[in-house]
Amino acid sequence: xxxxxxxxxxxxxxxxxxxxxxxxxxxxxxxxxxxxxxxxxxxxxxxxxxxxxxxxxxxxxxxxxxxxxxxxxxxxxxxxxxxxxxxxxxxxxxxxxxxxxxxxxxx
Length: 107
Description:
Layout: H1 11-20, H2 27-38, H3 44-57, E1 60-62, E2 72-74, H4 76-105
Antiparallel strand pairs: 1-2
């Protein structure tokens, strides 16, 4: 398996991979899905910039066009990179929660 280390993920890269982890989607469907699960709205320029970077890294791949829409899917390498990023974020969240509890206990 290729190295899943994507380096530093931007929010847009993380959101796009998270959306595609559920299944293939075209751009507008990703924008709507991301808004629904995160409350964030990606502008088309941000979305398609993230798609281009993810495709360059081999984390996503285009599927045959449907009408004028081009769906994308996450690759196994992209899934591994997303998993690694989720695990890192879970460690950061756990540390943040623990530090908040310590701070609250010292009041």
